[in-house]
Specification:
Length: 413
């Protein structure tokens, strides 16, 4: 029978905003501090009412079972990093209680817990000791840590000379290999290159399969879906939703969608572009339905209008369709052809029964001579595809970015 690794009961974290009443920010000597005590006591009552207070977290309660992988999602400033700092004991909660069962390893920012004057080797042993591990345990994992971080040549160099990438690789390797029962990871993986991010995500998958508890903050919804069995959605310091990772991510992405079916620029002198061509209009036209709602079977038409100022210029319109998780669904271009001077209109159709449910946005680029971009404008159109009238016996979101209707043939052989 599994037990809770983390128990959070009604925690809140409050900060005071504003400046010091005396307008001073410099450090004071002990003599200055002692001499200012009577003055500060006299004005405490008068100034307390003028202090603005901000709740970064308020009334947060949840339990995390041993071996569970939980993702934290939410917009910037929602309280995700503050929650991890409270859980990591970097800062104390203003109210509430937290209980842990097991050692905690955390990676909140690049080089957290590293001493810049110590070498990579010394910092590995220092971090292990902070986690409560014996020297023999740390030594057993030492080679694996160094190999994962790819810092063999620099392991005896003081880490103040490391690049941010080397810092990050070593910090993550230490946190992941020293076997804490609970691992807390903030959005630090975004600073690594793509290959290192894949390596870290693979390692986190290994950690979760070993039965350790992981709490993971990321804006990479694809990684959260793949790694996490459960997600907590925070907004304004409170839990909005707590449930299965896929469902919570879907609700968060849908809530974040800004319906924008048209972008327009009417002034040819200031519209996106340059003296060769400028963008006038991008519009998503809903075809084959009388409703404003876009369902999976809705036929769509993307319309583009731009001013061409160079007669005979060989131009092609290029579009990029993305999910809000930054996954490129497709990138297509029109035929490159000479265009007359003036306002040019081009359209492209997206058939029904092609896109899956979810939120999408379109970026537009105008290219000259099939090789030289004139301009690119991102997020010119944003829209949400809903299920519409459901058919069949599957009642969840179907896997995949697209869900086309393909022709099947069956016969007895």
């Amino acid at each position: 029978m599994s037990r809770n690794a983390i128990e959070v009961q009604s925690i809140g974290k409050q900060y005071r905003l504003g400046t010091r009443s005396d307008g001073q920010y410099s450090y004071k000597s002990l003599r200055d501090l002692l001499s200012s005590i009577p003055r500060r006591l006299l004005r405490r009552g008068a100034s307390a009412s003028g202090v603005e207070r901000f709740w970064a977290l308020k009334d947060i309660s949840f339990n995390v079972e041993e071996g569970e992988v939980v993702g934290l999602i939410g917009r910037n400033g929602a309280g995700k990093s503050t929650l991890l700092k409270v859980l990591s004991r970097v800062t104390d909660p203003t109210e509430g209680r937290i209980r842990f069962h097991g050692r905690i390893g955390s990676l909140l920012e690049v080089g957290t817990g590293f001493h810049p004057e110590l070498t990579g080797r010394e910092n590995i042993f220092l971090n292990g000791a902070i986690l409560g591990m014996r020297r023999a345990e740390i030594a057993r994992h030492f080679d694996a840590i160094v190999a994962f971080a790819e810092v063999e040549k620099f392991i005896d160099t003081t880490v103040k000379h490391y690049s941010s990438g080397m810092y990050l690789r070593l910090a993550f390797a230490v946190a992941a290999h020293l076997e804490p029962e609970i691992l807390l990871v903030d959005e630090v993986l975004a600073v690594g290159d793509a290959a290192f991010q894949r390596k870290c995500l693979g390692k986190m998958g290994d950690v979760s399969r070993q039965g350790r508890t992981v709490m993971f903050v990321s804006h990479n919804m694809t990684a959260l879906r793949a790694l996490c069995s459960r997600a907590l959605w925070l907004d304004d310091g409170r839990v909005v939703e707590d449930g299965r990772a896929g469902e919570v991510v879907d609700h968060y992405v849908q809530k974040s969608t800004l319906l924008n079916l048209e972008s327009r620029w009417d002034d040819p002198a200031t519209a996106p572009g340059d003296n060769r061509a400028r963008l006038h209009l991008v519009r998503l036209n809903i075809k084959s339905t009388d409703s404003d709602q876009i369902a999976v079977n809705t036929q769509l038409e993307l319309e583009f209008q731009y001013w061409n100022n160079v007669p005979g210029a060989v131009l092609d319109a290029t579009i990029f369709l993305y999910t809000l998780e930054e996954v490129c669904v497709f990138n297509i271009a029109s035929e490159a052809a000479p265009r007359p001077k003036g306002l040019i209109r081009q359209t492209v159709e997206i058939p029904g029964n092609f896109l899956n449910t979810g939120a999408y946005y379109v970026s537009f680029m105008l290219v000259q001579d099939s090789s030289r971009p004139i301009f690119r404008k991102d997020r010119v159109v944003e829209f949400d595809v809903t299920e519409g009238e459901f058919q069949g016996s599957w009642y969840g979101r179907r896997p995949g970015v697209v869900r086309p209707q393909l022709t099947w043939r069956s016969e007895s052989v």
